[in-house]
Write a structure and sequence with these properties.
This is SDR family oxidoreductase. Belongs to the short-chain dehydrogenases/reductases (SDR) family. It comes from Azospirillum endophyticum. The chain is of the alpha/beta class and 291 residues long. It has one domain: 3-Layer(aba) Sandwich (Rossmann fold), CATH 3.40.50. It contains 10 helices and 7 strands. The protein has a 7-stranded parallel sheet, with helices on both faces. β4, α4 and β5 form a beta-alpha-beta unit. The model has no long low-confidence stretch (mean pLDDT 95). The chain binds NADP nicotinamide-adenine-dinucleotide phosphate (NAP).
Length: 291
């Protein structure tokens, strides 16, 4: 059962320049919300501007941007309530733990975790007032960390934990906290991930290259082969809209059969068996000897 969207309500979506964030901003606007859509470039603002969507300059690691957005929300000229904060912005990385430079780990956590915490802290008083929702976009990587997903999955596992704590803290105030866990989604993220992986592969020592070249190749090939099974950003946006609108939302929504299967297996299988299954699935994607 869903609630009727109130035309006088705000929804905030971070990372709305592309992919899931852009699709979510459009879906929520279509449903009647006034969407504040976070982007980082003027050209993205121009591309997103349409009835029901107000682009806002928002780098979630920049405290000034967050303050400006908060001022916009608390000083809304029509005093509109905030129905939802969708913490969607994110950056991908597929690199072995050993290879990812420590300052890059820190930058990744700044975006994929601390940025969402900062946004939530800034807007929680408004969400409490309206009994609104925080929708955190995690990933199947928030439940299972495959090889080369250590940095990315680290941020998503942490986001899952923060979401659980926040949900239990804020439930008495009437704010719902919902986690959305997509599997593979066809967005710019895949291209961005492979560019970063290629750049970092080029910095590996010869010893690291011997350890990880084949693995990185296999992960890239496996990801490419899964694209045809992956979800569209619009399909994920529909689930996010459900999390915003459902009268009794679930605490978690997986999106896609891959996400449902992997999160289920991770829950019921011992580590040794899951390790064997994921290694077997990856094996055909390693470069053939002599190739
Ligand atoms: N694609 C998948 O397979 C998949 C699967 C599971 C979960 N997810 C999650 O879904 C979310 C959206 O990903 P997507 O697939 O739609 O990727 P995407 O198309 O690459 O979009 C990522 C968005 O995050 C924004 N962003 C990056 N750094 C930011 C920062 N510091 N401040 C504000 N915005 C920032 C990007 O803005 P710019 O354009 O300005 O860089 C872009 O709008 C992410 O949290 C991702 O982890 C994706």
């Amino acid at each position: 059962m869903t609630m009727s969207p109130h035309p006088e309500e705000l929804a905030i979506v971070t990372g709305a320049s592309s992919g899931i964030g852009a699709a979510t901003a459009r879906e929520l606007a279509r449903l009647g919300f006034h969407v504040l859509a976070g982007v980082r470039r003027n050209q993205d603002a121009d591309a997103m501007r349409e009835p029901g969507i107000e682009p806002v300059m928002l780098d979630i690691t920049d405290p000034n941007h967050i303050q400006t957005l908060a001022d916009r929300v608390y000083g809304d000229p029509r005093g509109r309530a905030v129905r939802a904060l969708v913490n969607n912005a994110g950056i991908p990385v597929n690199v072995p733990v050993e290879v990812y430079p420590l300052d890059a780990w820190r930058r990744l956590f700044e975006v994929n975790l601390f940025g969402h915490v900062a946004m939530t802290q800034a807007l929680l008083p408004a969400l409490v007032r309206s009994k609104g929702r925080v929708v955190n976009i995690s990933s199947v990587g928030g439940k299972v960390a495959m090889a080369t997903y250590g940095p990315y999955a680290g941020t998503k596992f942490a986001l899952e934990a923060v979401s659980d704590a926040l949900r239990r803290e804020i439930a008495p105030s009437g704010v719902r906290v919902i986690v959305v866990e997509p599997g593979g989604v066809r967005t710019d993220m895949l291209g961005r991930a492979s560019t970063i992986a290629r750049e970092l592969a080029a910095t590996m020592t010869p010893e690291q290259g011997r350890r990880y070249d084949g693995l990185m190749h296999a992960v890239a090939a496996q990801t490419a082969s899964a694209i045809e099974w992956s979800q569209t950003a619009e399909a994920v946006a529909e689930v996010i809209a459900k999390a915003v609108m459902a009268r009794s939302p679930r605490t978690r929504y997986t999106v896609g059969r891959d996400a449902a299967l992997v999160t289920f297996l991770a829950r019921v299988l011992p580590d040794w068996l899951l390790d064997r299954i994921v290694a077997t699935a990856l094996r055909p994607h390693f470069p053939k000897a002599g190739a």
